[in-house]
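Action item from last week, closing it out:
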Amino acid sequence: MIQPKWILEIGTFTGYYQFDLVFIDADKNNYCNYFDLVIEKVRPGGWILADNVLWSGAVAEAKHDKDTAAIHAFNELIHKDTRVEQLIVSIRDGNYCPKKWIDNIFCG
């Protein structure tokens, strides 16, 4: 499998880098990979925004195409991740806005 250029570049950010905000709006099949790569690089209290998480309602349907299945898997990943507080903004195709916990205490 060929990794997109951004996955390779994000993986090179080590140590010092801490982000306040990360916006994910790329190839849907790699949303989970992008999240896994950036979650530890987002400072406690920081946000990860992901676009198109409702996918015109297709994520709620029984059958999924490749992109819809990837978005559904991403939504499940965020839903189960105890490191973040979840928020979906249901404007257009939806934005997932998980906020990273600070020492297991939500900082609103």
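Closing note: The first helix runs from residue 5 to 10.
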